Amino acid sequence: MKLAFKFTNGVSKNEKQKKVAQEMLAITHKMGAKALAEGVETEEDLKYLIEMGYDLFQGYYFAKPHPTRVKKIHSIYV
């Protein structure tokens, strides 16, 4: 399950965001699924989410979107 950017951006400093992130993580892991935090933009937020127990991460902290369009999607992905 994915935690939206609205709750990840600044999570290390915002108590309401922390609560939402913790509750979503608990539900996700209870279901046996992986928890993904999207919109990670700072090292501080990344470290907090790692310590919290999130499994996967995406966002500008890692890379900006690539400007080249995908020309073909391999059949194993659709």
Question: What does this protein structure show overall?
Answer:
The protein has 78 residues and is mostly helical. The chain contains 3 helices and 3 strands; from the N terminus they run βααβαβ. The protein has a 3-stranded parallel β-sheet. The radius of gyration is 14 Å and the shape is globular. The model has no long low-confidence stretch (mean pLDDT 91).
Please tag this protein with its features:
78 residues; mainly alpha; 3-stranded parallel beta sheet; 3 strands; 38% helix; globular
Give a short overview.
The protein is built from 3 helices and 3 strands. It is mainly alpha-helical.
Low-confidence stretches: none
Rg of Cα set: 14 Å
Tally the beta strands.
Answer: 3
Strand content: 5-15%
Average pLDDT across residues? 91
Count, helices: 3
Helix content: 25-40%
Sketch the topology as an H/E string, one letter per element.
EHHEHE
Strand order of the largest sheet: 1-2-3
Which structural class should the secondary elements be placed in? mainly alpha
N-to-C terminal Cα separation, in Å? 19 Å
Main β-sheet, in a few words?
A: 3 strands, parallel
Shape: globular
List the helices and strands and how they pair.
Elements: E1 2-3, H1 5-8, H2 15-30, E2 36-37, H3 43-52, E3 56-57
Parallel strand pairs: 1-2, 2-3
